[in-house]
Amino acid sequence: MAELPLRRRERIARYIQEVGAARTEDLAERFEVSAMTIHRDLDALEAEGWLERTRGGARTGGLRLHERNVVLRMRQQVAQKRALARAALGHLDPGSTLALDDSTTTLALLPHLAALKPMTLITNFLPAIRYATDDPDIDLFGLGGQYDRSLDSFDGPAVIDQLQLLSADAVVMSVASVHKQWLLHPSAETARRKRAFIESGVKRILLVDSTKFAHRASHRLGEIDLFDLVIVDDAVGEEHIEFLRKRGVSVEIASVTTEDITADSQLV
Fold first, then answer.
1. pLDDT tens by residue, the chain, 268 residues
2. Strand blocks (E) in the chain
3. Other C-beta atoms within 10 Å of 252: how many?
4. What is the reported pTM?
């Protein structure tokens, strides 16, 4: 039976992310389809933001392009994000004020908010705002600014100004990249906003899946020991965990379960 196009394209995208770049002829041979089929697959994947076309093939889109595609990020590492969110819940108290940034990792926490109600939520992420508006037991501080469709969130100096006037019992967030002790992002504006989120929280929890350790980005938003707790999934290399613990960072490992993997692909 021929493989469905959607399934094949997901496999192609993962393969190119692993190897960095590939030629059309090599992809056709690897996935046992014609070169024309691969051309159509690559065109579709480029339109969705998974990769960049090159002369004769395709390459990974780069971290900056990736971070500006919220639809793409919502579909990646879903099982890991569920495991990280479940672990984070154990460190949050009912009745508290919680700040969530626009990391797609934090979306996996939304279905768990029932355990914290009544509560207050501070966020600039439109999916989280929509989620909270339907629940009368969640007091919502929606951070307003310029709406960015590619991020599905509000951005700009107004968001930072509002964060500087607010205090959360806990902030839960993620970052684009972790390299040694540094938290990194490809956008200077987003790095500044994420730093403001960090500073708004009394308790600071960072959720990072294993892919965050594989990339580098140009803008530092701070050192990882700004966080009281760093939660990683069980695929993170031991060398990264050992490095962080030697720096005195509290690291918790979240195990990805079969249920995390087989559950619906939508985070919320």
1. 556 788 898 888 878 877 888 999 999 999 999 999 999 999 988 877 678 889 899 987 666 666 667 777 888 889 999 999 999 999 999 999 999 999 999 999 999 999 999 999 999 999 999 999 989 999 999 999 899 988 899 999 999 999 999 999 999 999 999 999 999 998 889 999 999 999 999 999 999 999 889 778 888 999 999 999 999 999 999 999 999 999 999 999 999 999 998 887 777 7
2. 21-23, 51-54, 57-60, 97-100, 119-123, 138-142, 146-148, 153-155, 168-173, 177-179, 182-185, 201-208, 219-223, 229-233, 251-254
3. 15
4. 0.81
Closest listed residue to residue 43, CA positions, set 12, 77, 74: 12
CA distance 264 to 268: 9
